[in-house]
Every structure is written in C-alpha cells, then in structure tokens.
Specification:
heterodimer, A: 175 residues, alpha+beta, HIT family, subunit A, 2 domains
Chain lengths: 175, 253
C-alpha cells in the first residue's frame, strides 16, 4: 500500500472529529478555514463508485451533519461540501464560508448551443438509463427466503421421499 | 420588484408556498419549463445545466421543494445519495472521463443560487480550467485546531448516533425518517437551533449540577434569563419548554 492517507488513517495521525467502522472525519492540519472538516473512507478508494451504495449514502450524510455541526459551532454564513475525485484517496471537504473570506469555488459558465447540449444529452442518456434499476430488483427478494420450515416439511410425499428443493435445505442450514 | 408580496405579513407556510409557486426548478419538475432529464424517479431528478461548467454538468435535486439540504427528509436524501453514486459513475462513462467533482453550496455566500436545494455533478478532465474546485490549504496553529476539536467532536458524534438510531428504527418499523435534531436550521433565516442532547444526557447534566437543578425548579423564569446569557447552556436545552421541565423536575423527589 503506497497511499500516504491510508497510512495516516491507520496510525491515527490526525485530529479525529468522528470515526466509525468505515468512515473517518478529521480536521486537516492545513484547513481552508476555521472549522474545515475532511471526511474520508477508511478503506482505500479513489472514486465514489468504489464505495458500496450504503457507504456512499453514509459519507454524504456525514458531510451533511458535519456541515450542520460547523454551522452551530462557528456560525458561518454558509458551507461548501466538495468531493473532488482524483487518483488519490477519496475525500469530501466541508468548508465554512463567510462574506469576503477570499475563497471562490464558482466556475465560469460555458454557453453551449442547444444542438451541442442535445448531442451530449444523447450520450448521457445512453449510460444513465439503467441507473436506479438495480434497486428495483433488490426490492423484490427471491421467494425462497420467505419459505417457513413447516412448509418445507409438508413437502414430503406419501412414500417418505423428501422432495425438498436442495436450495431450500441449504438455506435452512444458514443460521 | 413589482408584484412582490409583503413577506412580513405572511406566515412561514405562506412564504414557502410563494417560493414554490415561483421556483423555476419546481416548474421544470412539473414540465412547465422544458429540460434535458438525465435521470428521474418519484423522489428526485437530474437535469443538464444549460450553462455548464463542463460537458455533462448535471443538477441533482429533489422533486419536492426544500430550501436547504438539512430539511430534506432522511429517506429522500438517502435515496438521492445512493442514486448520485450510480449517476456519477454512468455520467463519467458517457463523458469518457474517470473524474468528477460533486459540489454542494449551502447559503448564498457559498454559491447557492437557487432557493430549491440542488447540487452539481461536474465531469472533470485534466486542463479543464476548473482549478477553482481545488481546496485551499492555509497554515494553521496546532493549538487553535486542538481548541476547536472538542466542540466539533461532541456535536457531530451526537448527530451520527441519532442518525444511526433513526436508521435502525426506520428499518424495524418502516417509519419515515426525519433529520436528527440540530440539522434543521435554515441557512437563510438562521433560526434558533433545537439541538438539545437526548433526555438521558440532559438528565445527567442536571443531576451533576444541583444548583442549576434547584434554579430550574424554584425559579424557571430566572433560569430562562440565564439561558439567554449563556449560548452553550441554551444549546444544551435547545427547544425544551423550561416551565414544563421545572414542573417535571419538581415532581421527582
């Protein structure tokens, strides 16, 4: 492992604001502003999709709560939550903002002609049409799981031959 | 502006309704204003920004109008965050890049331009001139950081515990999740924050301070004045009704 961030997390060489099994929130030694909190997954990851869906959910919640915490503690006028993907250890920065604090994260908007936008849109739709579909499959669990032991027993035929599906028997073995 | 109603005479609900009716994103969601929808379900939507920071810049938002992130119900934001993971991945494939920036602004100072809370997914590539997203790093004194640590630690730890408890509860009963206490402040109005500790912790604090306990029981009015003077204490007692607390404490002997 060549990741300096992983080493720091392992050695706990940071001011730790929060930590659980998967996530850690620290105060960076060189903050953008007073109250700056950096949130990282403990396991090495560089892209958002490297995290499980649950961890991705939790890292944003942690960032959201870190933002509320900072609002309470330092009374800033706003906060930014920024996730910059790169090739190094993934992190989300929560930065308190004040009027005239010298920071500016805003971009210069590009003007694009509708046909150009339409062309990009076609490319995006080509990849995003499956997003969210996996969840629907998960929402309907396989029926075998709901089979009760009594029902399985009743499947024995008159001559005592056990007709129970071996898959269901296997399921019963799982504690 | 002409035709602007008198907000001072309106209830918070009426103001919220006015904002909804005049919200450009609510109109986009309803379909009154056309947009390029990269993703849509019953809770949320992601549309293309027509003046993007880069090719493929998406705006992600809830269908319901919420002014700030902490006001979005837990189960809605949880869904939105999970979809964001997959949407970001698909978007990068479409734009043939392996990087993006996810940008959230709370408050106008931070760059929040819309009263309908939304965030940005911006595909990145090297030399894209979006260096503005780089996080500044300033020299800071270790002691200063150390001094702020306990404040942040206590509060964030508490919020995460409440969040985990609520999630577990939600799983058991299929209950609709609400954001933990203390996350409900509005950026625009900076209302007082009801982020009192849970009752057990508060009871412990009261028991540890007999003088304070006596004051709450015998002189709740005086105690309320103390709260106004002491923001830390006020935070601890957050939205609690001191008069009720006084009667409750007085009845326990």
């Amino acid at each position: 492992m060549d990741c300096a961030t992983c080493e720091k997390i392992k050695d706990k060489k940071a001011l730790i604001v929060y930590e659980d099994d998967n996530l850690i929130a620290i105060m960076p030694s060189k903050p953008a502003a007073t109250g700056h909190i950096k949130i990282l997954p403990k396991q090495h990851a560089t892209k958002l999709e490297d995290l499980t869906p649950e961890m991705a959910e939790n890292i944003f919640f942690l960032a959201n709560f870190a933002s509320s915490t900072v609002f309470d503690a330092f009374r800033p006028h706003g906060t930014n939550i920024i996730l910059n993907e790169s090739d190094s250890h993934l992190s989300i920065d929560v930065i308190p903002r004040k009027e005239n604090d010298g920071m500016n994260f805003l971009w210069k908007p590009k003007s694009m002609a509708p046909p150009v936008l339409d062309e990009i849109f076609a490319k995006i739709k080509d990849k995003t049409f499956t997003v969210g579909k996996k969840d629907e499959m998960k929402a309907a669990p396989p029926k075998e799981v709901e089979v009760k032991p009594e029902e399985i027993k009743s499947e024995k035929t008159a001559d005592g031959e056990e007709k129970t599906n071996y898959l269901i028997k296997h399921l019963q073995r799982i504690p | 502006m002409a035709g602007e109603p008198d907000f001072e005479k309106m209830s918070p609900e009426e103001i919220a309704e006015y904002q909804r009716q005049n919200c450009i994103f609510c109109k986009i969601i309803k379909g009154d204003i056309p947009s390029r929808k990269a993703y849509e379900d019953d809770k949320m939507i992601a549309i293309m920004d027509i003046n993007p920071a880069s090719k493929g810049h998406l705006l992600v938002m809830t269908k319901e109008h919420y002014p700030v992130l902490p006001l979005i119900p837990l189960e809605v934001s949880a869904h939105m965050f999970r979809i964001t993971r997959d949407l970001n991945s698909a978007l990068k494939k479409a734009m043939i890049t392996n990087k993006s920036t996810i940008f959230i602004a709370n408050g106008a100072v931070a760059g929040q331009q819309s009263p309908h809370f939304l965030y940005h997914i911006i595909p990145r590539e090297s030399g894209d001139e979006l260096d503005n997203f780089n996080i500044p790093a300033k020299e800071s004194k270790e002691e200063e950081l150390q001094a702020n640590l306990p404040i942040l630690k206590g509060k964030l730890g508490l919020m995460m515990r409440q969040f985990t408890a609520m999630k577990d509860q939600g799983k058991g009963a299929g209950k609709q999740g609400q954001q933990p206490q203390g996350s409900s402040q509005s950026v625009a109005s900076a209302q007082p924050i009801a982020d009192h500790f849970d009752q057990k912790e508060l009871a412990r604090v009261i028991e540890a301070n007999p003088a304070m306990k006596e004051m709450i029981i015998k002189n709740p009015a005086e105690f309320k004045k103390e709260l106004e003077k002491n923001p830390e204490l006020k935070r601890l007692f957050g939205g609690l009704d001191i008069d009720k607390l006084s009667i409750a404490l007085g009845s326990i002997k």
